[in-house]
Amino acid sequence: MAITLGDRFMNLTKTEFDHLARRVESTLRAPSVLADEKPVAVFPRVDELRDVLVPLLDWCVARRPSAARGIVGIAAPCGAGKTLLLSWLAATVRELGLTQFAFAALDGYHFPNAVLDSRSGVDPEGNLVPLRLLKGKPPTFDVDSFLVDLRAVKSTHEELHLPMYSRRLHEPVAGCIKVGPEVEWVFVEGNFLFLDTPPWRQVRQLLERKIYLDAGNDVLRARLRSRHAAAGRDAAWIEAHFSRTDGPNISLIRAHAHFADVFFRWGRDGHLKEVEGAHSIGT
After folding, report:
1. Would you give the distance in Å from CA 18 to the centre of its chain?
2. 221 near 242, Cβ under 8 Å?
């Protein structure tokens, strides 16, 4: 029988877990463990390492993928900490010396801004607007290319290179994420991974495990305001963007949370914990 992470960690003392948590934090303070250039300012506590990160990785270590590689999807509303959780997992993997994991994000499949500028979409008031004003909504993603790459991940052990989204350029950049032949599991995060309309439904069907992450409405609004303000947006732009993009996205994503296999929520104390199901999310 294979020795899982759970077996390895079951007898760790609190001091040993504290030491691991410090190593993970040190890794996260170094240049980004992900390819998206997004800095990490929040670090996992010992209980989050023990009760969230190690179990998520252990689920994969304890089984073989159903295909050449397996894909684990993390879906959440904007501002709920998908990239943060992915960074925590990547740093934990690095500190544990695990080589069978890779990490990617749906944001790498945004259409380039030039494409968004050339197309139109409908805002929540029914107005026809440039699609770039709706950036972040489902039509602004190249989901067909996303599907092609996910199918390639599952069908081959060959080395692949996936795109990332540059927070500096505000554009997708091709080929930045390496998925080597040693990789057995790829964690992918994105807002719309669980949608039940084609072609998003096909995305969901490729996921061997589905993880849902959420936080309270006040937490999401505060994080989104902070994120947009840090990018130089003024208060009027932030409120308009919430009305036409972030707010509708949150409702859409939560409406499909029930497809998840496991649910996590950020508490008001700022700590991440597993919760019982979709009825425990949001608000």
Report:
1. 26
2. yes
Three-state secondary structure call for residue 71: strand
Which tokens hold the place of 150? 């996910």
Higher pLDDT, 278 or 119: 119
C-beta separation of 51 from 218 below 8 A: no
State the Cα–Cα distance between residues 183 and 78, nearest whole angstrom. 28
User: How far, CA to CA in Å, does 167 sit from each of 37, 39, 83, 86, 228?
Assistant: 6, 10, 12, 16, 12
CA-wise closest residue to 210 among 67, 55, 63, 75: 75
Q: Is the pLDDT of residue 2 over 80?
A: no
Residues above pLDDT 90, as percent of the chain? 76
Q: Which residue has the higher pLDDT, 4 or 63?
A: 63
Instruction: Please give the mean pLDDT across all residues of the chain.
Output: 91
CA distance 46 to 15: 10
Q: Which amino acid is at 98?
A: L
According to DSSP, the residues that pair with 121 across neighbouring strands are: 129
Distance CA 246, CA 250 (A): 6
Q: How many helices and strands in the chain, by DSSP H and E?
A: 11, 10
For residue 277, the 8-state DSSP code is S
According to the model, what pLDDT value does residue 1 have?
41
Strand 70-75 and strand 185-189: pairing?
parallel
Domains with residue ranges and CATH for the chain: 5-280 (3.40.50.300)
Query: Which tokens belong to 166?
Result: 């540059």
Q: Write the DSSP assignment of 80-143 as a string of letters.
A: S-HHHHHHHHHHHHHHHT--SEEEEEGGGGBPPHHHHHT-EEE-TTS-EEEGGGGBTBGGGB-H
Contact 259, 210 (CB under 8 A): yes
3-state DSSP call for residue 208?
Answer: coil
Residue in the block written with tokens 């607007």:
129
